[in-house]
């Protein structure tokens, strides 16, 4: 009798698991049922408008006409689940994405979590963690991140970038010199013979390799937590849409979507962020 009961329970569990798997496969997600209110909040124009930062080569590559990369993949998947068209606007710097928030031109963006930004953007937990590093002349006496924070040291940064905001809060002695975007900051560092440049590790490393006489300081000076975000002012206390976006990101990490997207875009040094703890 006991064996029969156990067999029945196993059969029921197997059928239930199979049904759940089939449902997940059919819907493509455990975050698949989207209420009309969430759709309206995330895409009030009927189109999901995504801001894509081509200034960060880890997150997006390609051209303004044909962007690609993990942020493009995430935007497309979110639009698919919401059942709305996707419109992407590209920018060449994260600071410009944040500035565009005032004009109400985007519904979702992909930015590093920073206190200044978090005052106006409802962020998810991070989906990717990348590194911020310094670049210096090869013969520079600066060897560690701590060495860089000295009086007389000028650091080239992209205006409004995550590392600009971070260094603005944390540096005690060094001076920041700002350029409109990352590539311009690196060029300014060389042309004006500044003592250091700060930036996302991957483009900094690539720039140093293509310019003899430069080197990258290890270790990093900061971890940059890249997240999805949506304008806070839109919701006025309504939490359903930000909550859905947070759940979406957690599923994208857990399902392997983020890891696969990083692999497709040839970003092996970027790390999938751990699951959120709350």
List its traits.
single chain, 278 residues, alpha/beta, D-Maltodextrin-Binding Protein, domain 2, two-stranded antiparallel sheet, 11 helices, 41% helix, disordered N terminus
Structural summary, described in words:
This protein has 278 residues and is of the alpha/beta class. It folds into two domains: 36-129 and 226-272, D-Maltodextrin-Binding Protein, domain 2 (3-Layer(aba) Sandwich), CATH 3.40.190; 130-222, Periplasmic binding protein-like II (D-Maltodextrin-Binding Protein, domain 2, 3-Layer(aba) Sandwich), CATH 3.40.190. The protein has eleven helices and 13 strands. It has helices spanning 2-27, 36-42, 70-82, 94-100, 115-118, 145-148, 162-170, 182-191, 201-210, 240-254, 257-264; strands spanning 48-53, 61-62, 67-68, 86-91, 108-112, 121-123, 128-137, 154-158, 175-179, 196-200, 214-216, 222-231, 271-272. The strands form two sheets. Strands 1, 4, 5, 6, 7, 8, 9, 10, 11, 12 and 13 form an eleven-stranded mixed beta sheet that branches. Helix 7 links the parallel strand 8 and strand 9 (175-179). Helix 2 crosses helix 10. It is elongated and about 60 Å long. It starts with a helix and ends in a 6-residue tail after the last strand. The model is unreliable at 1-31 (pLDDT under 50).
């Amino acid at each position: 009798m006991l064996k029969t009961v156990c067999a029945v329970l196993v059969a029921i569990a197997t059928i239930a698991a199979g049904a759940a798997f089939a449902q997940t496969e059919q819907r493509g997600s455990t975050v698949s049922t989207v209420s009309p209110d969430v759709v309206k909040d995330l895409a009030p124009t009927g189109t999901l408008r995504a801001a894509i930062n081509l200034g960060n080569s880890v997150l997006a590559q390609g051209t303004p006409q044909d962007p690609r990369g993990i942020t493009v993949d995430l935007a497309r998947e979110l639009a698919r689940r919401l059942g709305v068209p996707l419109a992407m606007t590209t920018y060449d710097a994260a600071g410009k994405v944040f500035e565009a928030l005032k004009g109400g031109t985007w519904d979702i963006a992909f930015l590093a979590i920073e206190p200044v930004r978090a005052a106006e953007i409802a962020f998810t937990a991070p989906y990717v963690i990348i590194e911020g590093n310094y670049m210096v002349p090869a013969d520079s006496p600066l060897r560690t991140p701590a060495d860089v924070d000295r009086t007389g040291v000028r650091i080239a940064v992209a205006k409004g970038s995550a590392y600009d905001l971070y260094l603005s809060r944390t540096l005690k002695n060094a001076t920041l010199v700002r350029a409109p975007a990352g590539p311009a900051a690196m060029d300014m560092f060389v042309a004006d013979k500044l003592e250091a440049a700060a930036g996302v590790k991957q483009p900094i490393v690539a720039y140093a390799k293509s310019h003899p006489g430069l080197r990258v300081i290890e270790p990093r000076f900061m971890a940059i937590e890249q997240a999805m975000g949506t304008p806070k002012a839109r919701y006025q206390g309504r939490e359903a849409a930000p909550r859905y976006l947070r759940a979406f990101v957690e599923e994208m990490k857990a399902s392997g979507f983020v890891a696969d997207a990083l692999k497709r875009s040839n970003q092996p040094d970027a790390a999938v962020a751990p699951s959120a703890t709350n």
